[in-house]
Write a structure and sequence with these properties.
The chain is α/β, with parallel strands linked by helices. It is built from 30 helices and 21 strands. It binds adenosine-5'-triphosphate (ATP) and magnesium ion.
Length: about 775
């Protein structure tokens, strides 16, 4: 076909064109960020359709996120004009998995109208199984089992194919419980997410005719973000593609960020082996970012070992250097970014104006979003959260809010229903029905109904005792709420502790649990800005209603994981601090695997930016209302200095970003600070990262991120704690300082006994 008849080919460089026009046989496009892999993949779909190689329903195209799938559909539509019908088999692995499984459900003992369980349902089921086996769920929590089962499904293990070494997990009962769980799902005519692919793999393996049918049907298979496929996805693809072998995968080993979920970057390396004669196309020109952004990203990723290694260049010379700025604390960071977005919107930064849609904030951990959401609501800056619930819509936040709602108003039945058995109080469906009945017969709220039921001795055993405890608690918390003896912040913490809600997550062994606990801490922190619980709840009601139509101009807020494949003219990357990014978990791990995955995430983050990339860190973050100091991320040190410009913190030095009319928040904070805060502050400005920034600036003769004389305090000279102080430690809980030796403390913990801990891992607690 001539380029004339296929004008879309004119927009490609020769390497991309080769990938698009090599229609027969396996093709692997292995290239760095922004080199036009997705563009080539989309064009390939258009080309297959235009040349008549395939009808739209004969093309199978897989992406990772719904947003990416939507975008690819739009792009194909644009390439071919409105007249073209959609590509029905273009979607995420899960979306395509459901569609296929509905057609063949009976082959794995399901009916085609099977239901898909969410995580809550899945856990409820596992809990029942664990209970039926008389396993102590305190020691062997359902979440741990669900984590194991998900992992097995990611690796394509059915209960039958599960190796003995794995089946012994969960107190030697893992494999057995997995089998029971799958049986139970079958009886319920239900599947979980992992089943969507795993069942299809099983069906293909056991039914040659079905497999052959799809091998013929899907003449062309295309996969974006191939580096993040897990074993089950890989097997599924390989089975489907092994007939005609027209499979085109595109990926970037430097952007593999789902290892923690079972993705195997090795799948890329195996491609050439599995698909003999594969054409490997490399792309080297980056069309997305300016030279400084690309240079900064390349500098960071170079620190990883075991890369395939790639060269990248861009013709977009010059432009803004990657901007780096340190802040006093997380709130200051959010405030500055809010102001900066408004300034960039009006074009007062010496750059062209950016629309809100052109700007995005990419965070490492979802709990970071809260500060931004609150700030943006306060200043009325429209924003949208992409890929994942917004902070106030998360499970643990909704649960906690339900408790608060009940404290404020005990007749909030929806809130009561939500938490009556969360944490588990032995109040199953039957008990809850009794409460409902009692409430209905007497025309009262569920809370009152529960009281009546208890008075009438309508419940017995553990459930009765636990319900009594809950009801008494709610009465008491309600009284405190109406009185003045305790602040609403203390009350909120007390409610979550006494109700057993915090403990539920502390005992939870799944990977999400620490994040949920962080979110709960964030929630408590958010209360500080309100006078009472009621005011807070009203505020949240407004937040929840903030869902407006999607076409509006809004700043995007999302995690780095959700940002994969996307691009924005201006990107903000906040929270570059050791312990947050890279995460504490990756730093504690032995070996470099976790840390290298974090570094790839940093690479993904920087390479989302087209024109302006702003990285920031805060010297202090508040945990449980106490300052904790943090160090600038080690990734900051890896940014090549020639691509970085250090901005001075606002307020401190009256720079462009600060609002001259308001007093410096740093100074203001210092004015009221106690010694501990100063110590925290001193840590940051004495940190190696900050010193290096200074040195760089000095070498370049630029204005320095100066430390003013009254800020710098010798951190060593101050011991933030004294013997007898009440403290809190993330892992060991509350305790009392027994002895101090340098930065190491002996702490007598209430529950964990006496332990030696490093002072930076503890915070002062109210006694
Ligand atoms: P990532 O690894 O981040 O997913 P990618 O390799 O998929 O990146 P694309 O998103 O396809 O890259 O392309 C990046 C940007 O470059 C897009 O805006 C795209 O339109 C543009 N682009 C791609 N190829 C070309 C080209 N040959 N000429 C001009 N612009 C191009
Ligand atoms: Mg892409």
């Amino acid at each position: 076909m001539s380029a004339r008849a296929a004008p879309y080919l004119d927009d490609l460089n020769p390497a991309q064109r080769e990938a698009v026009e090599t229609l027969d046989g396996p093709v692997l496009m292995l290239a760095g960020a922004g080199t036009g892999k997705t563009k080539a993949l989309t064009t390939r779909i258009a080309h297959l359709l235009t040349t008549g190689r395939a009808r739209s329903n004969e093309i199978l195209a897989v992406t990772f996120t719904n947003k990416a799938a939507r975008e690819m559909k739009n792009r194909v539509g644009r390439l071919l004009g409105e007249a073209v019908e959609g590509v029905p088999w273009l979607g995420t692995f899960h979306a395509i998995g459901v569609k296929l499984l509905r057609r063949h459900a009976e082959l794995v003992g399901l009916k085609s109208n099977f239901t898909i369980l969410d995580t809550d349902d899945q856990l409820r089921l596992l809990k029942q199984l664990i209970a039926a086996e008389n396993i102590d769920e305190k020691r062997w929590p359902p979440r741990m089992l669900s984590g194991l089962i998900d992992g097995w499904k990611n690796r394509a293990y059915t209960p039958e194919s599960l190796p003995a070494s794995e089946a012994g997990a969960f107190n030697h009962r893992g494999g057995e419980l997995y089998a029971q769980y799958q049986d139970r799902l079958k009886t319920l005519n239900a599947v979980d997410f992992g089943d969507l692919l795993l069942h299809m793999v099983t069906i293909f393996q056991q039914n040659d005719d079905v497999l052959a049918q799809y091998q013929r049907w899907f003449k062309y298979i295309l996969v974006d973000e191939y580096q993040d496929t897990n074993v089950a996805q890989y097997m599924w693809l390989r089975l489907l593609a092994s007939g005609h072998k027209n499979i085109c995968c595109v990926g970037d080993d430097d952007q593999s960020i789902y290892g923690w979920r079972g993705a195997e970057v090795g799948n890329i390396l195996r491609f050439e082996k599995d698909f003999e004669g594969a054409k490997v196309v490399r792309l080297e020109q980056n069309y997305r970012s300016t030279e400084h952004i690309l240079g900064a990203a390349s500098g960071v990723i170079e620190a990883n070992k075991g890369r395939l290694g790639k060269t990248l260049f861009t013709e977009a010379k010059g432009g803004e250097k990657v901007r780096l700025i340190g802040h006093w604390d997380g709130e200051e960071e959010a405030r500055w970014i809010g102001e900066e977005i408004e300034a960039m919107q009006s074009g007062t930064r010496g750059m062209h104006p950016f629309s809100l849609n052109q700007m995005a904030i990419l965070v490492r951990a979802s709990h970071q979003m809260r500060a931004f959401e609150d700030r943006f609501l306060t200043i009325g800056l429209p924003y949208r959260v992409i890929g994942g619930p917004r902070f106030y819509e998360r499970l643990e936040i909704r649960d906690a809010m339900a408790y608060f709602r009940l404290v404020v108003s005990s007749d909030d039945d929806l809130a009561f229903e939500r938490i009556v058995n969360t944490p588990k109080r032995g109040l199953g469906d039957k008990a809850q029905q009794k409460i409902q009945m009692m409430a209905r017969t007497n025309g009262v709220s569920l809370f009152e109904g529960a009281k009546l039921l208890l008075a009438a001795k309508g419940l017995t055993g553990k459930g009765a005792a636990e319900l009594q405890k809950l009801v008494d608690g709610l009465d008491r918390w309600g009284r405190i709420q109406r009185g003045t003896e305790m602040s609403h912040i203390e009350l909120a913490e007390m409610v979550l502790e006494e109700s057993g809600y915090t403990e539920m997550w502390q005992n939870d062994k799944t990977p999400e649990a620490p994040g949920r606990l962080d979110n709960l801490k964030e929630l408590i922190k958010a209360l500080e800005q309100f006078e009472n619980l009621q005011g807070f709840l009203e505020h949240i009601a407004l937040v929840m209603d903030n869902d407006s139509e999607d076409a509006a101009e809004k700043v995007s807020v999302m995690t780095l994981h959700a940002a994969k494949g996307l691009e924005f003219p201006a990107v903000f990357l906040p929270g570059w601090e050791d312990g947050l990014f890279p995460s504490q978990r990756s730093m504690d791990e032995s070996g470099l695997k976790g840390l290298e995955e974090e570094r790839r995430l940093a690479y993904v983050g920087i390479t989302r930016a087209e024109e302006v990339c702003t990285i920031s860190f805060a010297g202090n973050r508040r945990v449980y209302g106490q300052w904790q100091s943090s160090m600038p991320s080690r990734f900051i040190d890896e940014l090549p200095e020639e691509h970085v410009e250090v901005l001075t913190p606002p307020g401190l030095y009256g720079h462009q970003g600060g609002n001259a009319a308001t007093a410096s928040p740093v100074m203001a904070a210092l004015g009221e600070s106690d010694l501990q805060e100063k110590a925290a502050n001193a840590n940051v400005y004495n940190s190696p990262g900050w010193r290096r920034l200074q040195e760089r600036q000095t070498r370049r003769g630029m204005s320095q991120p100066r430390e003013s004389a009254n800020i710098v305090i010798d951190a060593q000279a101050i011991s933030a704690f004294t013997v007898g102080d009440r403290v809190f430690h993330q892992k060991f809980g509350y305790g009392e300082v027994a002895a101090i030796e340098g930065d190491k403390l002996d702490v007598a913990f209430d529950k964990a006994g006496t332990k030696k801990v490093v002072s930076k891992f503890i915070v002062a607690a109210e006694s």
